[in-house]
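Model it.
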Amino acid sequence: MTIGLNDYITLSVILFALGFLGVLLRKNTLVIYMCLELMLVASTLALVAFSRFHGMLDGNVFVFFILTVAAAEVAVGLAIIVALFRRRQTVQVDELNALRD
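Modeled.
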């Protein structure tokens, strides 16, 4: 039994859907942030799968740049979450409804 392109794309869609539902349904900013990262991983999985099954390295190059940007995104995003927690003493989205306090 071999794993085909459809299997990888199905897994990617499932991971992306789980991340999307997590962003829509969760109230904790850290969980929302993790779900956004899950969506990013799902898209990179699809790019690598397409790249591998088409025999080209274009998708792998895109994934390299995506992961580089994601590392910077993690640093900035977590810094913002820590700053919000220090200022408001909460990470719940429904309690962070105003930019100025």
